[in-house]
Amino acid sequence: MRQKVATGILALAFSAACVAAEGTPVLIPRASTTVTPITITGNAFYKGSDRFYIRGVDYQPGGGTGVESDPISNLTACERDIPYFTKLGINTIRVYAVDNSKNHDTCMNALAAAGIYLVLDTDTSKYSLNREDPSESYNSVYLQSVFATIDAFANYSNTLAFLSGNEVINSAANTNCAPYVKAVTRDMKQYIGSRGYRSIPVGYSAADVAENQELMADYMNCGTTDQRSDFYAINDYSWCDPSSFTTSGWDTLVKNYTGYGIPLFMSEYGCITNTRTFEEVAALYNTEMTGVFSGGLVYEYSQEGNGYGLVTISGDTVTPNSDFTALQSAYSAQANPTGNGGASSTSASTTCPTKSSEWDVANDDLPAIPAAAEVYISAGAGAGPGLSGAGSQNSGNSSTESTGTASAGSGTVTETATSSSKKSEGARAPTFDFRALTVGVVILFSMAGGMALL
Ligand SMILES: *[C@@H]1O[C@H](CO)[C@@H](O)[C@H](O)[C@H]1NC(C)=O
Ligand SMILES: *[C@@H]1O[C@H](CO)[C@@H](O)[C@H](O)[C@H]1NC(C)=O
Ligand SMILES: *[C@@H]1O[C@H](CO)[C@@H](O)[C@H](O)[C@H]1NC(C)=O
Ligand SMILES: *[C@@H]1O[C@H](CO)[C@@H](O)[C@H](O)[C@H]1NC(C)=O
């Protein structure tokens, strides 16, 4: 439920998206603090030879203001918040949108110095898939922005993963977007490989929609290596304290995903129906789940008008709320399992789902990368448009759109790197997550994921 900047008729949503900070001073040294990059083996993440579990929060300070901004291009803002990350005991933040025309050295280095990794959504409100028109919005203008974001973050050792889309599919009615999401993931992997970058994992963040979250999981991990995601992430709000592993249904969740051959984590969790005590942390980092899940990210760091904030920010002042303390205690009380936590050392692909009333995808073909975007793969994307560019959703035309399909493994998009990079898709379509929560008088219409709506 990334809060998004609403455009058009959905502008009534509390848009949120990271407003905090931009404008990094120009004279920042490019020297970097390095951490051990995170890698994938089988269905788990590793830091060197140690299993790595994501313990994190979703970070979009200013997201409630309605103006999309980048919280990690402004040292004042990230320096204000990093001490609280440290206090919580986290190792990862997720950022929903960044300005790819800005420099991020200072915040990324400060995060690295605190041992914190970044899971980054590569879409922005203006540059994303449009779930109402995936074919037109999957175009070279969009991919140029995505690739420029990869360029801006690929060199940081604490870039943990890229999210190629967030909740693009949010109902049974738009599963037809799946091939575009998968194509973007493929293209991102191709770009990372072809540009010679470290094999930064690419995956998709799926909405909490019971009818198709697992179908999408299978779809993103089926087919040839170049098309398979490196991991899958789910948004899940089913554990509402007080609850339990069985009451919440997380036992079934684990059963359902058992044997899934790539890393899986929660890109958002933390139901606020009742007071949050974060009982679920004791399950998430326990062997009852760690054979299948690699941790997760709590939604969300700052109070942005929808009731999910762990802290309240006012100018330079950060005030922790009661659930901040609860999360801090829960993390500190639950150590990671010893050894590999039940992880599988081999990667396994899935079988592509077949077309049904809940899955509107006819076959395993993907749209080929638009010809105009292939140029970026070989020559680089060039300067990013930032957050205030003209946008890409209406940029589809005969010269920017995909004009054909690429069958699995057809080689239409060729990987040139020797690394494990693959192609994937990534796109964020406009998604709405109408999670109606009664939080005082607040009914939250959060528009998750993608940004763009018409
Ligand atoms: C950076 O963040 C601080 C703290 O939120 C804010 O006061 C300042 O205006 C931001 N600077 C820019 C250039 O956005
Ligand atoms: C990444 O780092 C390498 C080596 O320091 C440098 O040559 C290259 O320009 C950097 N790339 C970007 C996009 O910053
Ligand atoms: C698990 O899978 C079953 C059968 O497909 C489905 O009905 C159920 O909703 C799933 N439960 C969870 C928690 O994923
Ligand atoms: C197609 O869209 C691109 C990007 O917006 C634009 O530069 C180009 O002129 C358009 N071409 C046609 C034929 O409309």
TrEMBL record:
Enzyme Commission number(s) of this protein: 2.4.1.-
Family: Belongs to the glycosyl hydrolase 72 family.
Ranges annotated as biased composition (Low complexity): 343-356, 390-421
Signal peptide as annotated in the record: 1-21
GO molecular function: 1,3-beta-glucanosyltransferase activity; hydrolase activity
SUPFAM superfamilies: (Trans)glycosidases (SSF51445)
Protein name: 1,3-beta-glucanosyltransferase
Pfam families, per the entry: Glyco_hydro_72
Species of origin: Hyaloscypha bicolor E
Function: Splits internally a 1,3-beta-glucan molecule and transfers the newly generated reducing end (the donor) to the non-reducing end of another 1,3-beta-glucan molecule (the acceptor) forming a 1,3-beta linkage, resulting in the elongation of 1,3-beta-glucan chains in the cell wall.
Disordered, as annotated region: 335-359, 387-428
One GO CC annotation: plasma membrane
Domain of life: Eukaryota
